[in-house]
Amino acid sequence: MVNIPYHVARNQGKLIRSFYKSVLPQIAKIPISQTQRVPITVYALSCERDIPEQVASLRSLGKLAREAWEKWFSPDVIYIRMLNYIESIYLERDSNHDEKKYQEEWLSWKFQWERGWTPLQRATRVLRRQISKISISKEKQ
Q1: Per residue in 12-47, pLDDT tens?
Q2: Is the pLDDT of residue 60 over 70?
Q3: pTM of the model
Protein backbone atom coordinates (compact mmCIF):
# COMPACT_ATOMS: atom_id res chain seq x y z
CA MET A 1 0.00 0.00 0.00
CA VAL A 2 1.34 3.40 -0.99
CA ASN A 3 1.57 6.04 1.74
CA ILE A 4 0.17 8.99 -0.21
CA PRO A 5 0.54 11.70 2.53
CA TYR A 6 4.21 10.75 2.94
CA HIS A 7 4.93 11.05 -0.78
CA VAL A 8 3.00 14.30 -1.08
CA ALA A 9 4.95 15.80 1.85
CA ARG A 10 8.22 14.53 0.40
CA ASN A 11 7.48 16.09 -2.99
CA GLN A 12 6.38 19.30 -1.31
CA GLY A 13 9.72 19.41 0.55
CA LYS A 14 11.62 18.82 -2.69
CA LEU A 15 9.65 21.62 -4.37
CA ILE A 16 10.31 24.08 -1.55
CA ARG A 17 13.99 23.11 -1.43
CA SER A 18 14.36 23.61 -5.19
CA PHE A 19 12.66 27.01 -4.85
CA TYR A 20 15.05 28.04 -2.07
CA LYS A 21 17.98 26.77 -4.13
CA SER A 22 16.92 28.77 -7.18
CA VAL A 23 16.51 32.05 -5.26
CA LEU A 24 19.54 31.57 -2.97
CA PRO A 25 21.80 33.93 -4.96
CA GLN A 26 19.14 36.66 -4.82
CA ILE A 27 18.55 36.11 -1.09
CA ALA A 28 22.27 36.39 -0.37
CA LYS A 29 22.51 39.67 -2.32
CA ILE A 30 19.72 41.38 -0.33
CA PRO A 31 21.43 43.79 2.06
CA ILE A 32 20.48 43.59 5.70
CA SER A 33 19.71 47.04 7.05
CA GLN A 34 21.64 47.78 10.21
CA THR A 35 22.16 50.83 12.36
CA GLN A 36 24.92 49.32 14.49
CA ARG A 37 27.18 46.33 14.39
CA VAL A 38 27.06 43.79 17.19
CA PRO A 39 30.27 41.78 17.62
CA ILE A 40 28.85 38.28 17.26
CA THR A 41 29.58 35.46 14.86
CA VAL A 42 27.01 32.84 13.93
CA TYR A 43 28.11 29.43 12.65
CA ALA A 44 25.79 26.94 11.02
CA LEU A 45 26.82 23.43 10.14
CA SER A 46 24.88 22.07 7.25
CA CYS A 47 25.09 19.72 4.33
CA GLU A 48 24.89 21.14 0.82
CA ARG A 49 21.32 19.97 0.45
CA ASP A 50 20.14 22.11 3.39
CA ILE A 51 22.14 25.28 2.67
CA PRO A 52 19.24 27.20 1.02
CA GLU A 53 16.98 26.71 4.06
CA GLN A 54 19.88 27.51 6.40
CA VAL A 55 20.54 30.83 4.63
CA ALA A 56 16.92 31.87 4.95
CA SER A 57 16.81 30.70 8.55
CA LEU A 58 20.03 32.51 9.50
CA ARG A 59 18.88 35.75 7.92
CA SER A 60 15.65 35.65 9.91
CA LEU A 61 17.62 34.69 13.03
CA GLY A 62 19.84 37.75 12.53
CA LYS A 63 16.82 39.98 12.07
CA LEU A 64 15.18 38.67 15.24
CA ALA A 65 18.44 38.96 17.19
CA ARG A 66 18.76 42.59 16.06
CA GLU A 67 15.20 43.35 17.15
CA ALA A 68 15.81 41.76 20.56
CA TRP A 69 19.09 43.69 20.92
CA GLU A 70 17.36 47.00 20.17
CA LYS A 71 14.48 46.14 22.47
CA TRP A 72 16.76 45.53 25.48
CA PHE A 73 20.12 47.25 24.88
CA SER A 74 19.63 50.30 22.68
CA PRO A 75 20.87 53.56 24.26
CA ASP A 76 17.33 54.92 24.55
CA VAL A 77 16.09 51.82 26.37
CA ILE A 78 19.08 51.82 28.71
CA TYR A 79 18.54 55.53 29.43
CA ILE A 80 14.88 54.97 30.32
CA ARG A 81 15.81 51.95 32.45
CA MET A 82 18.40 54.00 34.36
CA LEU A 83 15.87 56.76 34.96
CA ASN A 84 13.43 54.18 36.30
CA TYR A 85 16.09 52.81 38.66
CA ILE A 86 16.92 56.28 39.94
CA GLU A 87 13.24 57.06 40.40
CA SER A 88 12.64 53.82 42.31
CA ILE A 89 15.60 54.57 44.62
CA TYR A 90 14.27 58.05 45.23
CA LEU A 91 10.72 56.82 45.91
CA GLU A 92 11.83 54.01 48.25
CA ARG A 93 13.86 56.27 50.54
CA ASP A 94 12.54 57.19 53.94
CA SER A 95 10.97 60.61 54.23
CA ASN A 96 13.59 61.55 56.82
CA HIS A 97 16.55 60.52 54.63
CA ASP A 98 19.55 62.81 55.11
CA GLU A 99 21.72 62.71 51.99
CA LYS A 100 24.62 64.57 53.61
CA LYS A 101 24.79 62.09 56.50
CA TYR A 102 24.56 59.21 54.03
CA GLN A 103 27.48 60.57 51.99
CA GLU A 104 29.57 61.18 55.11
CA GLU A 105 28.99 57.58 56.19
CA TRP A 106 29.80 56.31 52.71
CA LEU A 107 33.10 58.20 52.66
CA SER A 108 34.13 57.26 56.19
CA TRP A 109 37.16 55.03 56.79
CA LYS A 110 35.09 52.65 58.91
CA PHE A 111 32.61 52.07 56.10
CA GLN A 112 35.38 51.56 53.54
CA TRP A 113 37.44 49.33 55.85
CA GLU A 114 34.45 47.04 56.50
CA ARG A 115 34.10 46.52 52.76
CA GLY A 116 37.81 46.18 51.98
CA TRP A 117 37.95 49.37 49.93
CA THR A 118 40.86 51.22 51.55
CA PRO A 119 44.03 51.72 49.49
CA LEU A 120 46.00 49.51 51.88
CA GLN A 121 43.51 46.64 51.52
CA ARG A 122 43.45 46.99 47.73
CA ALA A 123 47.26 46.96 47.52
CA THR A 124 47.39 43.90 49.78
CA ARG A 125 44.91 42.07 47.53
CA VAL A 126 46.98 42.89 44.44
CA LEU A 127 50.17 41.64 46.10
CA ARG A 128 48.51 38.43 47.26
CA ARG A 129 47.25 37.76 43.73
CA GLN A 130 50.69 38.35 42.26
CA ILE A 131 52.33 36.08 44.84
CA SER A 132 49.80 33.33 44.22
CA LYS A 133 50.40 33.57 40.45
CA ILE A 134 54.14 33.26 40.99
CA SER A 135 53.76 30.27 43.29
CA ILE A 136 51.37 28.56 40.89
CA SER A 137 53.74 29.08 37.95
CA LYS A 138 56.64 27.64 40.00
CA GLU A 139 54.54 24.56 40.85
CA LYS A 140 53.84 23.96 37.16
CA GLN A 141 57.55 23.98 36.31
Answers
A1: 888 888 887 888 788 778 777 776 676 777 676 777
A2: yes
A3: 0.37
Q: Is 8 left (phi over 0), alpha (psi -120 to 50) or beta?
A: alpha
Phi and psi (nearest 5°) for 7? -65, -35
Q: Where are the domains of the chain?
A: 4-75, 95-136
- Interacting residues of 66 by C-beta distance below 8 A, sequence separation 6+: 34, 38
Give the residue among 19, 11, 14 at the shortest CA–CA distance from 55. 19
pLDDT band of 88, cuts 50, 70, 90: very high
CB burial of residue 34 (10 Å; 0-12, 13-18, 19+)? exposed
Q: How many CB atoms lie within 10 A of CB 43?
A: 5
